[in-house]
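Reading a protein record of the kind used here takes only a little practice. Think of the row as the fold of the chain written in a discrete alphabet. A record is reproduced here so that you can trace the correspondence yourselves:
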Amino acid sequence: VSSAASDVYKRQMPNHLFLTLPIFFFIFNFLIVVPSAIGDDNFQYSECRSYYDCGLLKNISYPFWTAGSRPQHCGREDYELTCREDQYPVMKIKDQDFLVLNSSGQFYTMTISRSDLWDTPCNTNIVNTTLDYDRFSYVQAVRNLSLFYGCPLQSESVLNNFSCKVEGSDHNISYYVDDSLSRIPMKNWTSCYTNIRVPIMWKDVDAMPLENVKTGVLKEVLKQGFQVAYDAEWELCNRCLMSHGTCGSNSSSDSFLCFCGDGPHDQKCPDVDGTHMLLFLNLSVNYLRSMFLV
């Protein structure tokens, strides 16, 4: 009996060995081949996940993009930068050009300055500063500086004046006034040819001297720019980043996209590793159960 049982066992061994061979291929495919394929980064994910430089602005990413070097799908439509070598990049907001002096991805703020007032407050394009308030909002430390151009000589001494010839006016006296107007005793502002309001940082207003100033002093204050908070669907972006994706958009609709190793998704990357392992364990258990119940 013992010899007969041994013969039966030997005859069955190749069959069981043959049956176990597929599971080795199964394990190899799920643990080696499939993860390797999943690990091949999607090209949009690869090109958008890195930081880049744009002129003097360093280490920037979403939502900014630059034609020719940083594709639009890596940012949002209205955050296009024009890079200039050894200069601050330019961003257009409501048909006005602004220099982007710095950006904080941690606090979602950036400092910008009107490019037409960068070199001199004596500008031919005398218009108020306008922003897209759906995307931008002033931080609390910003206040307005009013610039009055083409003002006649006052009967009494007025502080905070500077010389600036404006086309269309016979007068070359101009004044800067902060929000409170308390620093200037001038009584008749309507006698000036025109005026504009320019946002600047509160600390820069307080640093301006209470005396007649040269145009260069005002120029330096305007060059400091002002800070704004900017919105680019940060809640979705943070959710995407937490899932190990990188933030971007659909170039056609400008809708948010989360770029992942396996391609773009609406909000976040799928739990690829967890899904893969769960599927592997489930199929392994079923396979082994069917093999040993034969």
